[in-house]
Design brief:
The protein has helices at about 10-20, 35-45, 60-70, 85-95, 110-120, 125-140, 150-160, 165-175, 175-190, 195-205; strands at about 1-5, 25-35, 50-55, 75-80, 100-105. The chain is α/β, with parallel strands linked by helices and about 210 residues long. Strands 2-1-3-4-5 form a five-stranded parallel beta sheet, sandwiched between helices. Helix 1 links the parallel strand 1 and strand 2 (about 25-35). The mean pLDDT is about 90.
């Protein structure tokens, strides 16, 4: 039996994932978590074969949780299931140690196939993501400035590029306005930009937002 921990802050999503996975006789949702802290506590208290992890958790970025899981349970397999398109977070997640990346728009049978493959020690990416990764590796020597942002800086950059204010981002990420302003300043500095309008243009030019 493959024991899965489902981590998402939306109860409806967790319920839907549970219903999909438990249609398979060898898959069992053995736990649920609605925050990053819940995930870390759960894996310390129980044994799981795989964590199905959302990027947008209310208290911690999913990639931060992934980094901590690599320290707490180095062999625990993690599959990212996110609302964010692959081009925004997938490569970062895979480089951080995730075994696969799926968007929430994926078909139920693709989710089951991904969980099964990852639980058996494999990797799971869509064909589109595989092509994107190949292109990324081919051009890695010419890395763009945003590839040097931290995960949190990148997250703030994407939200700014989507038109969110510093206050709105602070509320969404459970951070102070001052902290988000600091991240914004770091983004501007690392990308050699002057304003939020420049961030928006940069993000659209490089396909980081839709």
């Amino acid at each position: 039996m493959i024991r899965v921990l489902v981590a998402d802050d939306h109860a409806v999503v967790r319920r839907g994932v549970r219903e999909i996975l438990e249609e398979e006789p060898l898959l069992a949702v053995a736990g649920e978590a609605s925050s990053g802290r819940d995930v870390l506590r759960a894996v310390r208290e129980e044994e799981y074969d795989l964590v199905l992890l959302d990027v947008a958790l209310p208290d911690m970025n999913g990639l931060e949780v992934l980094h901590q899981l690599r320290t707490i349970k180095p062999t625990l397999k993690v599959l990212i299931l996110s609302m964010y398109p692959e081009h925004q977070y997938a490569i970062r997640a895979l480089r951080a140690g995730a075994a696969g990346y799926l968007t929430k728009e994926s078909a139920p049978d693709e989710l089951v196939a991904a969980v099964q493959r990852v639980s058996q020690g494999g990797k799971y990416v869509s064909r589109e993501l595989a092509e994107m990764m190949a292109e990324f590796l081919a051009n890695e020597g010419e890395a763009l400035p945003h590839s040097f942002l931290s995960d949190r800086e990148y997250q703030v950059m994407v939200l700014l590029a989507k038109g969110k204010t510093v206050s709105e981002i602070a509320g969404e990420l459970s951070l102070s306005v001052k902290t988000v302003s600091t991240y914004r300043h770091r983004v501007l500095t690392k990308l050699h930009l002057q304003s939020t309008a420049d961030i928006i243009r940069y993000a659209f030019q490089h396909g980081l937002v839709e």
